[in-house]
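ping. complex inputs:
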Amino acid sequence: MTMGISRLARAAACACCTLLLADAAHATIVECKPAAAGSYTVFLSEPMFPTTAFASKDQMRAFLQRLQFVLDQGRNREWVQSPTTDVRFVVCTNRAPALDGQEFVPSLIDTLHAGRVLLEIWGQLDAARPPGGTSRLWAQINYLLVPMQHASNLKEPAPRALQRLEYLDAAAPPPGDFVRLIARPLDIDAFVAAAFGFKLLREGQRELAHENLCRASALLGQMVRRELAPGTLKDLTALHAFVLTLASRAVAELQSDPAYSKTGTLRLQHPKQPCAGEE
Amino acid sequence: MTSVEDRLQRLEAEMDRLRPSLHDRLARLGQTTQTAKPAGASSPAPLSAGRVIGAIAAVARHFFGWMGAELPKFLTAFVLLWFGWGIKDSVDLSIKQRQLDLSYAKEMQGLLQKMGEKDAEMTQLHSTAVVLASYGAPALPSLLSELRYSGLRAEAAIAGIRSVALTQPAPVCEALPRALSNRGRQFDWQAQLKVVGVLGENDCTGAVVPLTDYRAAVAAAAKGKSAAFEEIVRELPLSPAEDYPRLLATIDRSLAMLKR
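pong. complex structure:
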């Protein structure tokens, strides 16, 4: 009962925060260059924030730089890449999409997709400081899976490309560390692996696509077991199912490809259980 | 007796002294008129074409004779006058068009600088491109120049070109096919993909041949022979297995629209 009230209060606080932020911030889309040709890119766009989260834009940008460093270099990635398929994180300064992602019109998605952008991440951050208590961090992060949105624009079957997750740091040592809040869970890895797998499959790199899709499936399987809002859970479940379908497709296409090695590891994989033994 | 009466008497005396007398002269004139009447009683003879030409020739001969050595100068001056009068309007129009283009270029300069601003926002780029498009055909070189940049600027440029095409399709249809064959490799394949779409949407029937040639280059590149395509595109697609089929499908759709 107490937990229910607490959740309700938190939801109300978040709603108020959203309204305040929507007024305070103006959504803008400026040019953001993907990583060097040949690499796949994840865009880190600027989040909306009140002064309780960051005192200034410079502080927020410093946070983005640290996040980029942690994601790009300072941790073990959960997705699978080859020497020729590198995934890089790029900070997009001054780029702050609207919370509902309304600016992502098909022409913009086309440009992102052709530039091998896998994911764009943005959202809103807040830090509540109750009198006498320690600050509690809250974040609502949007993950736009570009290959899925591109497929959807082409009227191909695809799950909802804009996934939205909330993060609340109950006890946050050190206080005010949004990087830990956002980078700690494996959510970014799951979405990167899913988008990367789909993009590789479309590019004909089926074996690597299969590996990433199965990795995404495992990570998404963990995510859906968390306590999530019904809408978020529904979207994640649909994405999980879609990823498994793609993995099946990758296995079936490889097995019917005469050029695929007779001793290839996926020769023995059953398309109906594409990730058996890997999750 | 007044002096006027004196004069009248003197005049009458002079007339009496006339030989033949005034009466005789009038009588002879009356006889002549009566004898001439029966011969030409029906109607005056009509002027034949020959007589008219003859008359004109006589006048011309007289005129040429009268002009003498000045005739060539006169003819030259006349021809120049006629020619000048004939081309006066088109020259005026051309000069005015040039002046207008020049003033457009000055006005468009500010808009182009706005499009080139660092961190220009997507909606700002789009609205600037559409304002540029309101200049019509004179804005096409600027918009095509913007199309050379990838990303948001190219997106905005194609929106502007589409706006021009709504009101003035002919200059758009004339200018765009060059983006598909320019050996300066100024455009990337995404810009060319958009150009292909605009050509199809606007019934640019004159673009069938350039589109067919472009298709041949893309189809060869899709099969691994990219030499011809590399000559006309800034960078080859990053994801050939995905991008070439898409490009070919767009070309085929546009060609089907144009041949319909």
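The longest strand of chain A covers residues 117-128.
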